[in-house]
Queue: 3 jobs
Job 1
Amino acid sequence: MAVAMSDDFTPGANQMCGIAGLAGGNALRHEKTVTTMAGTQHYRGPDGTKLAAARDGRAVLSMNTLLIVDPHAAPGPYVDQDTGVMLAFNGEIYNWRQQAAAWGIRIGRRESDAHFLLRAWARIGPSCLDGLDGMFAIAVYDPRDAKLFLARDRLGEKPLYWRLDGGRLAFASEVTTLTVYGPAPLVLRPEVTAIETPTGVDTPFQGIQLLAPATLLSFDVTTASIDQMTWWRLESRSPFTGTYDEALGRFSTILAEQIPLRSPTCEFALLLSGGLDSAVLAYLMRPPVCVTVRYPGQDRLNESSMAAVVARDIKAELVVVEPDHADFTGALPQIMRALDYPMGNASTFSEHMAYRKISELGLRVVVGGLGPDEFLMGYVRQSLVLFGPHAVLGAGLDAYGPLAAKIMHTSNDPISPAEALTRLILRGADPDGCLHDLVADAMARAGDDLARGLTLADLATAWRPLVLTSDKLASAFALERRSPYLARDLVELSYRLPVEHKTTGPVGGKRILRDAAKAMGLPRDIWAGRDKLGFASPVPSWLNECLAAWADTQIRLALADSPPPFRPLLKEGLKPGSRFDRTRMQAVMAASWLSNRTVRAIA
């Protein structure tokens, strides 16, 4: 059925924002609480904050609105007048026009993907999720059956936290927003010392959970009962059985179709590292502005010359950000306020400085290249598991000797892939073996395909801090962050490909993306390049050198008043480390976080 459009229909008024609210038998009495909650994350939507109450008084929803395209668009929350269904929405649905046409949903002038989603939900309910391609965190209250629904996109690009207390369920885009609803004692999750970040749905706040990606939560207001279901599973996709040429043709077609679809109609900036992933985005999306980060005196981390070649080719302005150690000491409190709690992402400081510059330029959308490394074997740790440490070092990656040493052994007993990967990702002790179990479960879900198992293991461990830091750091500057490689068709095809389509050897990762880039005519230095730098920073080295005394002071000040469970983590940071060791950086971040909080922890 064709969708009926009004004669004065205009392009969608895309919005990004923060959402918060609560549902329960007497929710209407807590409007002031929701107002306060929304106020704590106002930076996510500087164009205004609005509340809406359900007809039955059992739910109050709020949205902080950031208008991307149409400055006159109506802000949410949104209410369907016929059914009373309410929607609070954070994100973008990239295929909403196609789905509106397919489902016969009317879209009027200055209406957007949010209005489409509201009407789709009112008509067909949660089953509409499977038809959506985008990034989103949504809250829907349906008075017809007195239920609140929370849902996140497939790969968790947009955060959504929740807690159940006193028969009411509260939710928000930021975990600290939910501490407004009531105290939440700090908890040191064991995996924080193991890989620098909580895993699964845990947070450092007792009673507050992160809704898992691709998860639908339903809360029955009448009974205060909760049900959760996973509405999409990557591992359920069947393997690709065609030839490599067929795969390359399909992959290239999806790139050409899906990447430009994620280009905003307004001016935007691209995070351009000089590597393969961001360069492909540059040639397909043609951003007017590219932003790269380089550090004076750090030639090992400098890819700005290749970024300049790309920017010149696509006729974009190249903005180079050059932070120093003084910038880090000034930015750290801002970074920790944005993140809510420490997360293990080596690019945190570089991203923060890039987003700050993009905000100063007056732009509202930033694009980055997350995804290919996880799905197409772009990490050295994946090559170490697939081909072994001797093959990787023999291929010229000598700089990764300290990493390779973690899985070298003199006995004749081989270690399993799950054990090898666990050793490679661990940055601290794993006394209960929880990380090993997490990795082993991910690999088991992939069956006998080791590459797919490595992807699922990455999604279960290192992925969460990557997407969360990208969203939170950008949102702190009222920026919308887009990751085009996470298009559904591209993700599913990449996962389904056999390992030989993804890598040709120890330094041959992302084979199919390299060949697609070659066919597009990108410079040879880009598609033939092998070393991965991204937006890595020299912060770990600074903390052992020019910032050593400052770091010790920060950690010691935090130790004086820190909750007991966090003291071993902080004390570890007082020990010097190598340039690959982020233990000291984790301690400094935790010190900054703890020093600015008045909370208590439990063991």
Note: The chain has four domains: 15-232, 236-375+463-527, 380-460, 539-602.
Job 2
Amino acid sequence: MTASLLEAFLDHARTTPERPLLTFERATLTYGDLARHVTAFARGLRQRGLSPGARVALFLENSPQFVVAYLGVQQAGCVVVLVNTAYRQVELAHILADAEVHTCVTGAAGAAELVPLREQLPSLQALVAVEPLTAEAPSSLPVVAFDALLEEGAASSVALTLPGAEDLAVLGYTSGTTGRSKGAMLLHRNLLANVRAVTEAWRWTSADRLLLTLPLFHTHGLMVGLHGTLYTGGSAELHRRFVATDVLATLRDDATLTMFFGVPTMYGRLLEEARRTGVKPGRLRLWVSGSAPLSPQLFHDIETEFGARILERYGMTETVMNTTNPHDGERRPGTVGFPFPGQEARVVDVRTRQPVAAGEAGEIEVRGPHVFAGYWRRPDATTESFDAQGWFRTGDLGEHDADGYLRITGRARELIISGGFNVYPREVEEVLATHPGVAEVAVLGLPDADYGEQVVAVVVPPVGQPAPEAQALVEWCRDRLASFKKPRRVVFVDSLPRNALGKVQKHLLRARLR
């Protein structure tokens, strides 16, 4: 019985090696091509001394090398650590140290980011470079070129054993609401169960061809887009990044495409571009949106302009995909539908933890084979997140309507989702608090027509000092954090509202700033 997505992919490669799999910048890899590269990469890692269970970070943008490394790490019996390409030194230092990453696969820009962190990352022993590095690359680290590693692996005869269902496959870093991000441990069986459920629900087959422009370091692009393609034996056109003009032209010109997955911001950009240029996409059988709430207005606008009814779904790093609007049946705007096959979802009272009736709000809990095994080296956080019956507390608030469709109404915690990316207020607050012109700060999310939510910083300057320039604070964050985490709005106040225990009352700030 198949125990992993990797095994399912290798089975396709054995039976249909000449079948096209991945097109990238006009070059196509077949299933057989990719399998040979994956096996060579895996043997190259083992040849260089990596043992099963070792953590390997992928810190690079979309490319065939990403796909090869992702599967190759797993075939070597090692664990993939996903790293957002927008992350800067604060995030990198924490994630790579917490996971005790041994090897990082990256490019020139990524290697340059690691230079100041060398002393903070004693576990990091090597870089695999997908392109020539600049002079700023850390000289104290052994660096091997990606192609050279493939050559080493191709010449090696080191034995490889397929991972088992209970083996750790991926560490996906996420945090609930406070503190540093935690590594969600996804086992091979979690990934396989979820992709089976998704492909069944969405009628995904080997005949499908996906336009994949979502970042592969993100759950949506990797564990839905790529995993579904590999599992079904389908194919995908991969873009390095989303560019609205290029994507719209591809959707117009390539009649072989059957699916497109995006976040609401992407759909908004495509709509703007179509209205500006008059270019319209061709007919696809499935358009999917996720990673942030899709407004009913955008849903209807896309239907009017493109003739497409978007299928909205709900997922998260710890569980991959949880619920989906129906493939066959009503796709209800503003809702995320029903649990995928073999999975469960419910809404419970936040105090009693008992299920609530339709129309009543509560916290969403999920259960099933797709749910992660717990947080990396954080048994306390794992225990807090599950009840005795195995229900996982998502931290999202929602309600079921009378027909059973799930609607997400907010977040029990303070996570901000901007443009499909998670922004954790405390992380931004901690960076802003290091600026000499900031005495106190509260970061929150406010509705934004383009990004879903915008990051807003409310700042109290030091007593007796003038407020700094707002743009200076934005740049302060941009230099230390991923660009999408920087405030889009800075508000200066004399004091922050607090309750009797001294906790900042962000709901009062939110009401004041709307």
Note: The two ends are 54 Å apart (CA to CA).
Job 3
Amino acid sequence: MTISRRQVLLLGGVGAVGVGLLTLPLRKAEAGAASALDPSELPRPFQTPFVQAPILRPDRTGIDPVDGAPVQYYTVAEVAASAAILPRLKTPILAYNGIFPGPTISIDQGTKAVLRVRNQLPAKHPLDGHPLFTSTHLHGSASLPQYDGYANDITNPGFRKDYLYPNFQAARSVWYHDHAVHNTALNVYSGLVAQYHMHDPLERALLPQGEFDVALTINDAMFAVDGSLGYDSNDHSGLWGDVILVNGRPWPVMKVKKRVYRFRVLNACLSRSLRPTLSTGDPVTMVATDGGLMPVSQSVASWRHAPAERYEILIDFRKYSPGQRIELRNLSNKNNVDYEFTNSIMAFDVVPDTVNTNDPTWNTIPVQLAPCEVMSLKPSAATVQRSFRVNRNNGLWTVNGSTWEQVVASNFREVLANPELNSVEVWEFANNAGGWFHPMHLHLIDFQILSRNGRAPFAYEKGPKDVVYVGENENVKLLMKFGPHRGRYMIHCHNTVHEDHDMMVQYRVGPEDAVDTITNNPITAAPAQWDTGLA
């Protein structure tokens, strides 16, 4: 049976290990809802306890013989499983180690990581039947091209790939997720997403750690009548679910002590942008952006948060009374599709537990944080300025009129930019068509947002970034330095529905020579291997 992505919406009845399609009679969705669940099966806000993904422990440790740096070796398996998201029904998922979100990797600056990803998925996706090859991208890591999760560097079921991550960058919240060509959206939506935290001594001294360093992975979903995930790409425009999940739980409630907490907020939605705010009207303190600590913290009442962006915030619960509930709400943004409860994200209940006042971060809101190279760059250092137009042409999402299909047709040679190694450039992204916003992501590098329609960036954007919210009719200028690696890297919209259809291009750092085409070839330099199950 042939089926379009749009028609996939609310198909049910395929088990977690199913490989085909099965059509069930569809119950018409309730007015104002995306899910086809019976109302008694729909979750409601603030009924489930908050949980965090477990920390992944290394299989072993070692020493890199080349430079003597410590190395930690990890393994995750991509598998079909089921999740307890709904009150009664189970939801089939595809996930790292069978959990959604997948296990968090926490590692210190200067310690390298080797992540073995084993593709143990069924041959085809249970919703639309696409082949379940994968490509793992550590989003925010300055990885070599062959370990960057290049979209066509695929790992088929029954194969594995070892990804090498240098972890020399300053502390930051990054995340790993699937990046398989033309199937990123549905694979990520099905559960292939997890956080990855890099630490350094300055960040550890300034910000809360341990149980007070909290990862929030937020996404939205819709559900079929049997509890499985529904999917509707709205003619490749985007997916907007009616259930908000935080760490895989619908609108959870977290118990908090009367102290300062740090939250690493990742928007893992396919298309929905957020505008989080506290129900009390109190501001939060923004301390880090995609690329790590800001130079100076910023007090903000709300912030515009696109898919794939990470913002680290401090919330000071000392001012609230035991028994008080504070909600993290969502004010939303233009061109989202909102439902009855998508204005809520989660809640915090203050408890009277004793606070350890020997921890200096319990009552500290730092102002001065950390300088970094990209935020110290000056526009005068730029030797080249480039412009990129984001648009929709003939049903395809494009960058300067180009798509990933053109890259493939060129045998992966076509590039939209070719900066020199260590060069500084200004790039402008122009979204003059309106109608949609585009979170544009540049692999490999961090950048500084210089301006938005000629004005200063928002206060919460004044830190190193790798995703920029390019809003409707906005022109955004970015300042960046290219390195530390040479080779080919992707530029794409992180509305992953747009990315799959077909809003992805590439740039090349340095000349097209043996380093680019052989040594660091993103597809052939480190191909996946047959998974024998042996070390």
Note: The first strand starts at residue 60 and ends at 63.
